[in-house]
Structure formats: C-alpha cells, structure tokens
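pasting for ref. prot 1 ->
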Amino acid sequence: MRKIRCLSNVLCLLVSALLVAAPATAQQVTGTLGSPDATTSISGKQLPAPDPKFGGVIKNDALQSKAWWAPRIVPPKGAPNVLLIITDDAGFGVPSTFGGVIPTPTMDRLASEGLRYNRVFSTALCSPTRAALITGRNHHSAGFGVISEQSTGFPGYNSIIGKDKATIGRILLDNGYSTSWFGKDHNTPAFAASQVGPFDQWPTGMGFEYFYGFVGGDANQWQPNLFRNTTQIYPFEGKPGWNLITGMADEAIDWMTRIHQTDPSKPIFIKYAPGATHAPHHPTKEWVEKIRAMHLFDDGYNKLRETIFENQKKLGVVPKDARLTPWPNEVLKPWDQLSAEEKKLFVRQVEIFAAYAAYNDHEIGRVIKSFEDLGKLDNTLIIYINGDNGTSAEGGPLGTPNEVAFFNGVSELPVDVQMKWYDVWGTELTYNHMSAGWSWAFDTPFDWFKQNASRLGGINQNMVVSWPARIKDKGGLREQFVHVIDVMPTILEAAGIHAPEVVDGIKQAPIEGTSFAYTFDAKNAKAASKHKTQYFEMMGQWALYEDGWLLSTKVNRAPWQAFGVANTDPLNNQIFQLYDLNKDFSQSDDIAAQHPQKVKELRAKFLAEAKKYQVLPLDASVAARVVAPRPNITAGRSEFVYTRPMVGLPQGDSPFLLNASYTITADIDVPQGGAEGMILTSGGRFAGYGFYLLKGKPVFLWNLIDLKRVKWEGPEALTPGKHTLEFDFKYEGLGLGTLAFNNMSGLGRPGTGTLKVDGKDVQTIKMERTLPMILQWDESFDIGSDTLTGVNDADYKPPFPLTAKLNKLTIKIDRPALSPEEVKKLEGAQAEALDGKPLTHVQPGPQ
C-alpha cells in the first residue's frame, strides 16, 4: 500500500480499512481526509462499501468538537467512461465493417481507430445473450436459458438473475460511476413487469441509475411502450415522424450531458441497446430512400451472399481459404426460382431492413460524437457488438407484414396477401419481417440463424472496440475467441475495479467470463485465446467449443418451425458434427466420421458443462413454453375485478384469455347525450381484443393478427342510465392441459362468443380459429382508454377514452381441464403442429 499522509492515527486506520486488499490502481485518496472534498477508491470486495467510522472529535459542544466527512467514493484514477453498444438480431455479414453492403460508417470509423474482432460469440437468442453480457456469467447461470416469455420453473430457465450475480451496472455504480441503460430491456421477467413490481429485476434495481426504453423483446419504433426508470411514459405523444431510434439517442445525449455538466470528473457507463434490427423493421422514410437509391439487393440473396463473402476476404476479416457452405435449396428457394412478384416483395422487405440498420448506426454515431463534443472520447472505452445473435429468420421463407403472426403459427403468409402491405412496409401499419433468404445471406460466411445455437450463423457475431487513450494498434484485427460473458471482466479490468466477493451481504458466484483486455496491446495481436472452453445451448440444439474444436448437433428445426413435436431426448437423440475451426473458419467441413473419439470426448465435456452451469434439464420445446404457466400475478386466479380506469398492465401480468372460456361484464352509467370509448382492450393493431362503445353501441372485437377481425355489435346506441354489458365466450379446445403431452392440438381451437346487453343476447358468432399463443407483446392491458395502437383503426383512434362512468368490470376465466378419458387418449399420441392455414385464406389489407 502506498503511503498516505494522515491527520491522525484514527484517519490512517480508516483509510487502511477502506483500501484493504485493493489493487494498486485502486488505492487512491484525494483531498484532505475528513473534509467535504475528500475522495477515495475502494477495494470493491464488499458492495456497498461499509460505512467508515466517524473520524472527527465529539465533545459536549460544537466549538470544542471537530467535524468529519466520510470520503466520497470514486473509481480508480484514469478509469474510462464506458459505452457498451449491442444491436439486435444482426449477423456477421450485416455491417460494412465486416464486408456487408449496408453502410455502417460509425462502426467503420471505430474500427479504423480501434480493433476489429471476428470471433465474438453470443448465445443464439436475445435476452440470454444480454443476461450473460451484463453479469459475466453464462446465460443458464443467470437464469436465462431462454427468453422470459418461455421461462420454466428450473434455475437455468426461470428468467431471474440471482442476487449472487451482481451486474456490471451495480459494480460500477458502487465504485463511483454514473450508470444508465437505454433501449431494450429484455431481462425483466415478463411476470414482474407491472407496476406491482418487484422492481429488483428492472434496470434500476440491477444497478443502472437511469433507464429509458422498453421492457420486452421487441417494440413498435413509431409508437413504443416506453418507460423512464419504472414509470410508463403515458400518454405517449411522439411528434410527426418521431422514431425511437432517434428518440433514445436524444435521451442518451441529454443524460450524459447533464451528468457531465453536473460533475465533469465523474465517469459514466451507458448500456446502449437499440431495438434495431429486431422486427418490426421501422426506419424513417429518409433512410429508406437512401438505401433504395443504392440498388443493393436487386440481384437477390444468393448474389448478395457471394458479394459479402468476397468483401470479407478483401477486408481480411475472414481467411482467404474460408469456404461457403451450399445454399439450402431444401429450406430456402434460390433467387432464380422466385416469381417476379416474390422478388419485388422480397427486395422491398430487405431494403427496409437495411435502412433500419444504417439508420441505427447513424444514431449511434451521434451518441459517440457527443462524447467527443464533451472532450471525453479519448478516455472512453467503446464496445460495439454487432448483434445479440445471428440474423433472425422468424419471418419465415416468405417474410411477413406482422411478426405476431409467426408467434401464432402463421409462418408462411402467401405473397399475394402480403403485397397488400407493399406500399406501407416498414411504416406504423406493419410489424414487418423479411424473408429468411436475406437472413441466411446476412450471416455470411456462416449458415443458419438466430435460435440455432449449434451453427455459427446463430452465435458468431463481430465487434469493434475503441479506446484512444489505450489502444494504439489502430485498425487491428483480433481473432481470439471471445464470448459475451467476457465483456464484464474486460470492463472491470479496464477500470481497475475488482469483481466483488459480497454484494448486499450475499456471497457472489464466480465470474465465468475471461477478460480480453490483453488483446488491446499490439504485442498480443496473435496471442492464444485465454477463453478455452464454451458450451452453447438453445431449445435443445447445442454445441461445445474447446480450443478450436467445435462439436455441434445437426440443425433439426428451422426457427420458423416452432409448433412441432419437440425432441424428447435432446441430449442424445442428435446427429453430431465436428469441426476444426482453426482450419475451417466457416464451419463447412464436418469431420466427425474421422474423429469418433473426439466426438465422444466432447459430448462428455458438454454434459459436464451442462451440469456445472444449470443447463439441465434440456428442453427442445419452443412454442409450448410460451403458454406454459408461470408465477405471474394472475397465477391461480379465475376472477378479476376493476372499479376504475387504469392503463399499462403488460401482457405477462394481465388476465390471459387465450385457450379458455371467459365472461367479461361491464357495469356502466351512460350520461345524457350518450357515450363512447374503450372499456377494455389488450393488444393492438397487430393482434388483440377490444370491448368498447362506438357511437353509443356496444362492440366486442377480436383482431386476429391483422388478417381478420371478428366483430360483435349491439343493434342500437345505449340510452342514458345504468347498463350491464357482457361478452361470453365458450371455448371448444382442450387448452393448456395438452401441453403436458407435448401436444399443441388443444390450442387455438374454435369458440363461440355472445354479446349481451342488460341480460339480453344481441349477437352470437362462432370463431373457427382463435389465437393460440400471444397477443401483441409490446401493447398493454388497458381499462378506460387505449394506449398506443388500436385493435381496429376503422372504428376509432387511441386513446379513445370512455365517456361513460365505469362502475365495475369483471373478468371470469374458465380454463378447460382434461378428463381421464382425454388423458388416456393423449398419452403416447403424436401431436400435429399448427399450420395457420385457417387464417391465411383471408384477403385483407391495411385498415
């Protein structure tokens, strides 16, 4: 410990206690101890740092006493600002920095001033990657084996980050940083996202002092369900043309400027997580026009893949001897076999995607420019990760104007139906996704997609790192193995801060990542990777990396095939493939047959890793987990009563009406002159339901993924006075009970709805198919008005407040249970996947 000038023995003991066992870089005290200007760094082993003993003198009166202030905690001298950027659903071949045709000048600039990394690995899915990123632990260790909407009651899959795994935000905060999180938060459990809380799993509860963004997997960028800290921003009033990609950049710039102007010496940490390029792809018109004028995609996705591959070799980001795997003709139709109409639609789809990516990179550049304007860029560590997984193929082979359709089993909407949205693609009238052919190309030089944890197209990202004050090997390429769990220990090493041993009295689990800060030095440009072994697993597909070897399970499910019967033994019922990535960069040469002993060895090691990191039990189911029960605030309840308007209750915490019978009853008072407005709604333009008064008439409407709307309507306007409105729905399926048998045939079945006014039936309609899985995730359950988008644009525009008085709203749900005879019938049966065809025959268009 360096010598410290003390005013008394008491102060020396105090400082020693604060700094015990701290690294040399952290043993720093400034100012006069005991005075208001004193600061100190801490060992960081215990967070928060224990309160020091009073170091002054207390006598009977103040004149004879000596005041004393505890030193303010600050990071070690020279600790950098940190900007951690992670984009969404973007594969290796998306940015121009790594050979893509989409211009990403911000990433290009950072790469020229810093380092490029071509072996950066994700988990193959969004929130699992993000949990690993902020905790430095594997995604199963952090409870995120899958997204929260698929969570199950096992430690590796419950979507709860344990208190023994403090985040990078919390560690930096307690060490004197200002911390913030902008954009996507997909790490708050879907069943803990309401205003009931608890809020310990929200960004502000995990060490990020300021949060501005959305909670969930995706968001309408034109009309997002936004939060500031834990409060919904409502009513949301975006200016004409407002878009969240620009809005969050503005917010981040404002926040960092306020912090700097308040205390220029305080370093800041920003986790910057834009929604781009996750569906819906929502760029501004300006960027669409820029990309369209470039004619980047007229030759199709096969040619695009070849062009990107050539660019990558020219840039040196892939080896000269790398090879492309064959085009998957059995999965995706080659471009030259498409019809003229298919080509026209697909080009429109990808131009919107590319505009979204380019627009996002531009706005990231504005945030970085603000660091420069504040004079902070030189000592700012910027980590810009392209994608939290490979490019998404959840639009299916044909793409879709509504991603919510995919989550409800409609994965191949006919092109002639989709063309009805051609002119509004990417606007607020679509929740759009592109053809998987483009997704395959954007993962060049690899194959497959997001969700595919055994293929590099799902897990091999790329990254640039800039830190002008430290990194001098400008434009260098780094090929060491890096996983997202390595980011947290790298930031801590860069800041000179220890990972804590105890946080809030809880002993911390070991950090599982390995710092890659050693790669910042030019002398280590070709150093061996320090991260030697890494498992991968996502929904039953898995792999094990060990020092260049990669054992992979053969892909047995495309991402859009979510409704089939799951592999009941995903650990063993697999075709195993083996690759030597030291010689085979693109995972193109399966050598399992030549090395059976290596396959056996790595299979055993995967099982050992799986046991170590909470991967077991393996589960290959996909859609079934979305509707599986979990401990939200509605669990075990069959009746819900509301007596006044409220908005903003998220889908994961609201009454779930799918695959069940239910009755909704509203007791209202209609004033003189009549009434209109929303009584109850959940979801929005792209899937949901609404119970409302339209020109005085009661209406109940189901929006079936923006393809069909089923509407019940009273014959006449309600007279002034008290009325009881009721919607009664009788479901004909077996419901969620079938899931225990790996059987989804009981979901999305027919049902009959009856609208009643003051006890009298006014209209009965049978729905031949109901929604099996979800409503629109980023829309909420609202009473008394409608936030964001409406379920039927032809009838009303939000917020559509209810002008009648709501006395009481009651929802009663009756979930079907399996009889002993039905259980016997289902046992051992093979389920058939939903194909969505009953919905695809409709011929709708934008409304």
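and prot 2 ->
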Amino acid sequence: MVAGAVTRQVGNLPADLTSFVGRRRELAEIRRLLAASRLVTLTGVGGVGKTRLALRAAAEQRRAFDSVWLVDLSTVTDPALVAETVASTMGVRDESAAGPVDALEQVLSTQRTLLVLDNCEHLRDACAVLADRLLRAAPELRVLATSRQSLGITGEHQMKISPLPVPEPGRPLTRRSLELYDGISLLTERAAAVLPGFTVTEDNHAAVAELCRQLDGIPLAIELAAVRLRALSVNALVERLRDRYRLLTGGSSTAVPRQQTLHALVDWSFQLLPGAEQTLWTRLSIFPSHFDLDAVEAVCTGGGIERDDVLDLLDALLDKSLLLREEHAGAVRYRMLDTLREFCRKRLGEPAERRSLQRRHRDHYLLLVGQAAAEWFGPDQFSWSRRLNLEQANLRAAMDFCLQEPCEAEAGLRMATLLTEPYWVTNAFYNEGRHWLDRMLAAATERTELRARALLSDAFMALTQGDAAAGLPLLDEGRALAEELGDSEILAHASLIAGLAAHYRGDYPSCAELLNLALVEQEAAGHKSGILMSLTTLAATLGQLGDRERATELFERSIELTSSHGERVGRAWALTIFAIYLWQCGDDERATALAREGLALGRDFGDRLNAATNLQTLAWLLTGKGRDADAARLLGAVEELGRTMGLTPTRVKRFAEFHENCLSTLRSRMGDKALGLELRRGRRMTPDEAIEEALGDRAEGGRPRQDETVVEAEPTPPGRPATTVSAAEPSPLTRREREIAELIAQGRSNKEIASALVISQRTVEGHVEHILDKLGFASRAQIAAWMAAREAGGRS
C-alpha cells in the first residue's frame, strides 16, 4: 500500500448517548480559541467533564474541517505508543520503516483536520512532542487536547474547565431559581433517566441543592449520585455522602475502570504525582476552605517539604488541576474541592500526623488573629477586616480543634477573645462570637486575666444584643475576677462595659459616672478603642442629661481621634451616634449628612448593626420631612436586619421610644394598611438595597416615575404579564443591579461579573435572582433582551 494511505472516513466522533447540559460559555470560548490558536488544551480536575465538552465542541466544529478524529489515550501506558495510537485511530497505515509520525505528517499536511487528543495527563511529554511536530508539519491542523495539566509547548492556549455552577451555601433558594444552575439541571436529567418522573419539587429542592453542593458540581460525581436515587431519596443520599467514595460507585459499565467510581478516578490522579506533590497535596486537606501561600508555608512544611519548594509544588498541583486558584479582592488564594479534600484526608496517615498539622494550623491562625488585634486601631483596618473575613472557615476550624483536643482550650479562649473587636463586633457576628466564647469559657475554667477579658467580651456582645439576662451576670463575674487579680486595665474595661449597660437601659446618671471613670482609665492605659467608645457613649449620655456643650465637644474629639489614626470602624459609629444627637437637637441637615457618611463607612466593613442604626435614624429624619412611605420601608428593612442578627431595633431604651413615636406618627398619617404594605416592602429588601435607597442610589419606592417613557421588551411568554422597560432609568433595579444587568447583556458569567465588580460570586448570584424576580423573568437571556430594549428606547 502507498505510504500514508487513509481509509475513506471523515472522523470517528461517537454519537451522544445522553443529553449535553450547560457549558454554553465554555463552548463559545473554545470556538474562539480554536479560531485564534492551533492547539487548545482543556484542563481541569478529574470528572469535571473535559472529554464530554471536547466532544461537543468538536461536533459543533465538524463542518469547518475535512475530518475530525477522537484519539482516546486513557488505556495507553507506553509513551512510545502515542503516535501509533493516533495513526491507528485515523486508519493511517504505513509500510515503510520511517514510522507512524512520518505517515501522519504526510496525511495531515493535505487536509484540514481537527484532532482531539483525550486523556493526555499520564503521557504528557509524549503528547507534547507529537503535537508540536504535527502542528509544524501540517498548517491546517488543529489540536484540541484534554489533560489534567497543560502540554507546555509553544503556541498552546490552556482553558481551565471548572465544575458546573451550583448554589452556594447559606442563601435562600426557590425551586425556580435552581433552574439557573447547570449542576442542578444535570442531576435532574440524569435522575429522571433512572427514576422516571423525578423532578425538583418544593419538598426536595433544598436537598437537591445541598447534594450538588456537596459534590462540588463535578459532573461525574453528580451522575454517579443520580444512579443512587434509584434506591435512596435525595435527603437520604445527602445524609450518606459523608463517605462519598464508598457510596458513589456504579457508573457506566462501558466507561474505563477509573471513571466507574469516584475513588478510582481520584486515585488515578494521585498515583501520577511525584512523592513531594503527593505529600503536600494530602497535607493541604487540613485546610477546610481556601488558603494562602503564607498559611501553606507555615503549616505544611517539614518532613520532606522545604519552605523554598512550596511555591513550585503549589504551581505543579495547580497545573495538574488538583488545586484551584482564586482571587479575592486582589489576593491570590488556593482551594481544594471538597471531593478531593476527603480523599486526601484519608491519605494523611496516623492520627498523630493529623493532630500535628491541626496544631500548626491553629498556631498560624492564632498568630494572625493576635496581629490583627494589635494593629486594629489604625489605617490597616479595612485590610485586616477583609483578611479575617476570608479566613472564616480556618478560624472556625482552629477554634474547634482547641475544643476537641485536650489541654488546648486556653488557646481557643485567647483566639475567641482577640477576635471580639476586629471580627465578631465589626461584622455584627454577635451570635457566633457568643457561641464560641461561651464554649471556650466552659472548657477553660482557670481564673486568669484572659478569662476576665473573655467574660467582658461575652458580656459586651450580649448587652449589645439587648440580652441583659445573660450579659449582666457575665459582666459581674468578669469585674469580680479583675478585682481578685488586681488588674487595673481590665477593671477599666469593666467600667466601660458597665457604663454601656447603663446607657442601654436609660440610666444616664450612672452611665455618666461610670464612663467618666472609664475614660480617665482608658486614657491612662493608652487603649485607643476604649477611649473612642468611652467618648462617643459619654457624649450621647451627656446629651440626654442636657449638657450639650460638653456632649458636642466629646463628639468632635471622638471624630478627631479616628481621623488622626486613620481609623474607620469606630469613626462610622461616632458619626452614627453624633447624627442621632444632632437630630434630637433639631439639626436635621447635618444629622442626615453624618448618618449617610456613617452608613457608607459601615457598609465597607459589612457592619449590619451600624447599617440598622443608621437606617433607623434616617427613617426618623424622613418622617420629619413627610416622606412617610420611604421612612416606613427603611423601618421594615431595619426589622429584617435585626431579625437576622438576633437584635431588636429597640435594644436601647431611648431608641425604643424614638422607634415607637415614629411608627405612631406614620400610622396616623398613612393608616395601618398602607404602613403595613411599606413595612413589608422594606422587609423584602436586601441590606444592600436598603442602604442604596437610604444613600439616594435607588429610585423612591422602587417604582416607576411618572415621567418615564415605557417601551416593550422581548415577547412575553404565555401567562406572564407584559414586561416594560424605561427609556430613562429602569426604576425597579438598584444601581448595582443595573451594573450587573449590563454585564449579563455583554454575555459575562457570574464569576466574570464578580471579578469585574470586585464582589463575591455569591453576591452576584443573589443580585441576579433579585433582577429576575423584579422583572418577572426566568432566564438571563430575557435580562439581556430587556437591557437591549431599554438601550434602544433611550436612543430613540
């Protein structure tokens, strides 16, 4: 036969046996990359769907090529046989001694071919050499490869394939909103194939969301789980997923062995790793969520892993798709999928090794928290707040270790106490802070100065929540212990907390006496946060007692103190309390300006208590201006915020009087029905929406203005009310929602929108759901059409 002869075929792509779900953005990106590059490598963790995506992309591109070939390398173990396998798959036979590569070059040089090289990771070098040589010899050749890591040759474009989108934890979901997630759609379709009639219902939608979350959106894991629904309910499957590697078996009998069970698939990846990479990968499972380079160097080095090697090892694991790289507000962090973390934890070895890693993990984060507390009052406040918020899961894991491991409770008590100001209070995480402090105080019972500080921290948060029944005994115990120890600094802090308690209950003479003493003692100790809290609370107290001159002086001092140190959290509160005082004095204009400034500052830190207090103050001010509906909506938002934090808007006695007076005024003007309607509207607003409205970024009432021109959007589905858009500003949407809608219209994914706006993907998903609800839509495509119609209307 003539060298290089090829049988009369145009390809060997298999027909789809099951439906293809989602991945529209990825398919579009592959088309774009293949138009710009001759080698595109799809990389990602095992089971993420690289092969299926490559096959769909190749099928869509079939008409652009003379032939499209799939070469499955999963069963090839000898690198020397890679070229032979490609030639055999294509039907290229060569009778000369030159070898299969020469024959392939000859055939491919005469036709326009798309070659899909599937499962290259274990033959990476051989695949790279072959692809490089063929691409140089055949100018019309395109190669689409799938691998855990890139091939690493010139001209290659790598595309990371992520798991399918699934709902993030901790957010309310409806049955309709679940339809937006490809991971849910895949589970639903595959479950219906093995259990006819299976659908997502009001009864099972929460369990369906949790199941897909636990499986990390990995298509293979979801498909294996769907098979189990023949024997188990969704709820039962979620409960049993703690041992997912044992449970998720029974895949397709036609799949290669490593794809028939989840354990075999991950073990395949593990066995391909060099020893040092195996060691680091298993140690990284000690982190419960994402982590940074500093943490890895502090926790995972030693025993064969040198600090100088960590970055290169992380890079290798990233390249093999065994770690994910994420950016959070410019900070690079790494994350392991839960499915992989469970596998690695089982590989950690003896319990002693696990405990050693957990202790090093705890020590690292205890050191971090101590540094945050020491540097809190100053210009680095926002950086520390953001950093601690990123480390939430690691902080919880470190404290949990302290409770579970004997003789470690004292370290846990120290961590929980140090977190009070920069974390629990700043984020209004009062319930969680009290939870950890209560548990640590019960475990660490030695009568030390640390225990006294912890008791006062616990008392402060309880009293701030209005829980005097729990807070006052904690305060008394903390103060008694400080007296027993003779610690004047802790006694000064006890006086401050006692003064706050007196202020909350409206005992202003006692409060003034306690806070005057506390202020002197805090100034003597040089404790800036204590000085600031004493100044602002004492100023508010003196204002209630009628000493306006000194009250104003103390307020101005508190604001100057924050300015001179670059402090922002305390400044937000100083402005907030000052605004309330000015409102009482009748200076509504300045009170409004300060309340809005305090609200904007507090929003930067996610301080929901500050937000609730400022929104309440602005509601009082709006009532005075006759803007009753706006005031009522803000009060509704305050009630909802208080409910989520375990607070009431009336926790301070004087505030309770203002609140009731405001409600009484609104009821007399509006009537019960109208007032109830606006309160309900306020309760339905997210905190961001309420803040935007209070700051003037949201159209009044969220309703169209009378002068808006209305144009028709895309054709309305049967049974759905006609949707209109404004040629001016789309009043149903907030400023942030308009930004997100514009990016949706540009074809951006939630992850891309989050990156562009420097917010979390979870926040973006929440905004998208609100946009869909407000506009009465069911898909992102309808949002895009709505934006296009609005733009067209604006131009006309």
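The domain at 710-795 is CATH 1.10.10.10 (Arc Repressor Mutant, subunit A).
The longest strand covers residues 141-147.
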